[in-house]
Structure formats: C-alpha cells, structure tokens
Amino acid sequence: MRLLPMVKVLISYDMQQGKEQECQDYLVNKMAPALSRMGFQFSDVWYTIWGDSPEILGGGEVESVDKARSIFESTHWEKLAAGMETITDNFKVMVVHPREEV
After folding, report:
1. How far apart are CA 46 and CA 98, in angstroms?
2. pLDDT tens-digit readout, 30-56
C-alpha cells in the first residue's frame, strides 16, 4: 500500500492599516482553532518586513487533497474567510499538491 504525502496549504494576506491587532486576534482565537478542529494544523507563519510579498504567509498541512477540498470548500470555511476579508487585503489560499515520486 502506497501512502500519499501530506498536502501543504498556504494562506497569505496583508493586514489592513489600523486593524493589525484585530487581525492577529482573529487568526489566533478564531481561525486557527476552527481550522484545527476541521483537520488543518498551522505549522508556520511568516511576517514579511521587506519586499513585495504578502505581509503574512501561513502554512500548514492536511492529510490529502480531498481533505483540503472538504475544508476549504465548506460553508464553515466561507464564514471564517469572510471574517478575514473585512480586516485584510489580498487574502488568498493555495493548495500545494504533492509531487509524484519518480
């Protein structure tokens, strides 16, 4: 039996001016715990201080592409994302598919 590798999910955004604390609180107290219950676990968060990249880039893993799809196409996710969209700009989610072993 061949096990498929975990799937990486990246979440990026820029915090709106004056809403930085609200954004951090929402991520830590609402979004991260809700995603954890749904099967996604943040593994890293990066803050960009130089350059033309998203201000925040967070990453984590889920067990499969199907699991990522079930999380990020759910109505629960839509509600969580809507909360972020009011305090961020350029909010994006990207699923990084695993490469096939050669």
Report:
1. 21
2. 999 999 999 998 999 999 988 888 999
- Report pLDDT for 99: 67
What pTM was computed for the model? 0.85
How far, in Å, CA of 23 to CA of 54, rounded?
14
The label of the residue with tokens 């830590």 reads 28
Q: What angle do CA 49, 52, 56 make, to 5 degrees?
A: 50
Residue whose C-alpha is closest to residue 55's, from 15, 10, 9: 15
CA distance linking residue 61 with residue 72, whole number of Å = 13
By 3-state DSSP, what share of the chain in percent is helix, strand and coil, each rounded to 5? 35, 30, 30
Instruction: Calculate the alpha carbon distances from 93 to 2, 13, 58, 71, 102 in Å.
Output: 28, 9, 10, 12, 28
